[in-house]
Amino acid sequence: MYQIEKSLNKLNHNQATFFLDPREQQELMQKLKKGTFQIYKPYQDSEKNIFYKTKKPNIILYEIKTKIPLLHREILGSIFSLNITSELFGDIIITDNHYYIYVLERIAPYIKTNLLKIKNSKIELEEVPLSTLANYQREYEIINIICSSNRIDTVIARIIGTSRPNIIEKIKNKEVTLNYKVLIKNSYLLKENDVFSIRRHGKYQYIGIKKETKNKNFIIECKKYK
């Protein structure tokens, strides 16, 4: 709620917000009148976006130059290790063995100066034009699983190949998020377009039940973020 109040205050002073995740964007839109704001999207289906009234935000796109392959979580962890909050940077993009990150202009010099290693390997940040990813479209892996229900603990257990008790333990340890909030209720029934993440196992979007099997189970489809 603090982030929403801060965003409202910025907009009231004709300032752009920081980067907002999809949940925060929904909450903010509920408090704003239609037509009184604009949304800056760095690319077509970006997740983290910025609200503004008249003046577009100043952001920087860095390409991460590296000699080794990197995972999204490794890049994210290295950024957080600099004590940078998520509102100061946007989506991390991995495409064709290239790595990119959007950051607010105000924090860009600090990140460029201090983000020197990822996965114990030296990296370099090179500013590239925002147009570099203008036509980028997010890539997903389609996953179909057979489950007895669309309970989130059941679905996750099938996705990562473990037992429901193990998933319940992960939920207790705050290792699972649902729609960008820490998941509390393991019996939650997934709804279309819900987004959930499992620490060390990636991020997924629930598409829905495709059909029922002869054994009264369900074929469920999810998209895994690449």
- The average pLDDT value, as a whole number, equals 94
Strand content: 25-35%
Strand order in the sheet with the most strands: 9-14-13-12-10-11
- Helix/strand order: HHEEEHEEHEEEEHHEEEEE
- Share of residues in helices: 10-25%
Largest sheet: 6 strands, antiparallel
Total number of beta strands: 14
Report the end-to-end length measured between terminal Cα atoms.
30 Å
General description of the model:
The protein has 226 residues and is an alpha+beta fold. The protein is 23% helix and 32% strand. The chain is built from 6 helices and 14 strands. The chain has helices at 2-12, 22-29, 72-80, 108-114, 152-160, 164-172; strands at 38-40, 50-52, 59-65, 89-95, 98-104, 117-118, 121-122, 124-128, 140-147, 176-178, 181-182, 195-198, 202-212, 218-225. The chain has a 6-stranded antiparallel sheet with strand order 9-14-13-12-10-11, with helices on one face. β4 (89-95) and β5 form a beta hairpin. The model has no long low-confidence stretch (mean pLDDT 94).
What characteristics describe this protein?
226 residues; alpha+beta; 6-stranded antiparallel β-sheet; 4-stranded antiparallel β-sheet; 6 helices; 32% strand
Q: Mind sketching the topology for me?
A:
Elements: H1 2-12, H2 22-29, E1 38-40, E2 50-52, E3 59-65, H3 72-80, E4 89-95, E5 98-104, H4 108-114, E6 117-118, E7 121-122, E8 124-128, E9 140-147, H5 152-160, H6 164-172, E10 176-178, E11 181-182, E12 195-198, E13 202-212, E14 218-225
Antiparallel strand pairs: 1-2, 3-5, 3-8, 4-5, 6-7, 9-14, 10-11, 10-12, 12-13, 13-14
Helix pairs in contact: 5-6
